[in-house]
Amino acid sequence: MAIFEMLAQSLAPTACTTIEEVGSTGVGALTVAFLVLAITAIIFIARSSVPGPERPHIYICLYICGVAALGYFAMLSGQGWTAIAGCRQFFYARYFDWAVTNSLIVLNLGLIAGADSASIAATIGAEVVVVFATYMGSVAVVTTVKWFWFTFSLVALVFVLYSIARTFKDSAILRGGAIASLYGQLAALILICWIFYPLIWVFSSGFASFSVSFEVCAYAVIDICAKVIFSFIILSGREVFPPGNLVKEYV
Q1: Which residues pair with 83 in a beta bridge?
Q2: For residue 202, which phi and psi values (nearest 5 degrees)?
Q3: Between 74 and which of 67, 80, 185, 233 could a Cys-Cys bridge form, CB atoms 3.0 to 4.6 Å apart?
Q4: Predicted confidence band at 239 (pLDDT cuts at 50, 70, 90)?
């Protein structure tokens, strides 16, 4: 029994007397991200009332930006965080955000490409694994366990990126030039953005090399690019969607 008690004590997190929290720069980044995402969501609410073949994609973009805005509001208002190993402020609210919004991004890409439902479902499932494994790695107390979780997330991320870069792309090409061109722009943006997420994690939750404020700023920039710019590219390319394509294929 004594051995198990000693082991439990060695794995337990050290009590924090002080916590490294987000500074004024990070709070500013949270504020800007919240406002940009909220305003974008409002724009898409107004746009969703306009009938057209792009309307399902507009609704998805609305929820992408709306849920992300709620996540940033939670972080900005001092909610959705805890202290992790190393006495560092950790915003777990963003992981709830990513689990929903990244899945919706995959859904939108799959629908635009005209990919089959099985491929879309598999990619969404893998993306959920990415977010879950990254979260578990962030809150892990044991260093070895942390990096095992990160490895699991990378394996799932490779599958997601392959699906976007190859599986969905092949389907988009079959749909014709205009759709393929739009999909190519969206896929390139998401591939670049999602490669940066694990890089930021490595030097923040991983090695704790980045300050909490720098981490917050970096994630805010990537979130705005992957959600707001993504959504407006879809809005600007709404004319390429053939009438009734979603109804025929997915309903």
Answers
A1: 89
A2: -55, -40
A3: 80
A4: confident
In whole angstroms, what is the distance from residue 108 CA to residue 64 CA? 10
Burial class (CB in 10 A: 0-12, 13-18, 19+), 226: buried
Tell me the residue type at 186. Answer: L
Determine the Cα–Cα distance for residues 69 and 31; give it in Å rounded to an integer.
Answer: 10
Structure-token match 């004590």, residue found: 9
Give me the helix-helix angle, 55-76 and 212-223, nearest 10°: 170
In which band, very low, low, confident or very high, does the pLDDT at 245 lie, cut at 50, 70 and 90?
Answer: low
What does the H/E/C string look like for the chain?
Answer: CHHHHHHHHHHCCCCCCCCECCCHHHHHHHHHHHHHHHHHHHHHHHHCCCCCCCHHHHHHHHHHHHHHHHHHHHHHCCCCEEEECCCEEEECHHHHHHHHHHHHHHHHHHHHHCCCHHHHHHHHHHHHHHHHHHHHHHHCCCHHHHHHHHHHHHHHHHHHHHHHHHHHHHHHHHHCHHHHHHHHHHHHHHHHHHHHHHHHHHHHHHCCCCCHHHHHHHHHHHHHHHHHHHHHHHHHCHHHCCCCHHHHHHC
Q: Give the integer Cα–Cα distance in Å for 17 and 182.
A: 52
pLDDT in tens, 23-64: 999 999 999 999 999 999 999 999 988 888 889 999 999 999
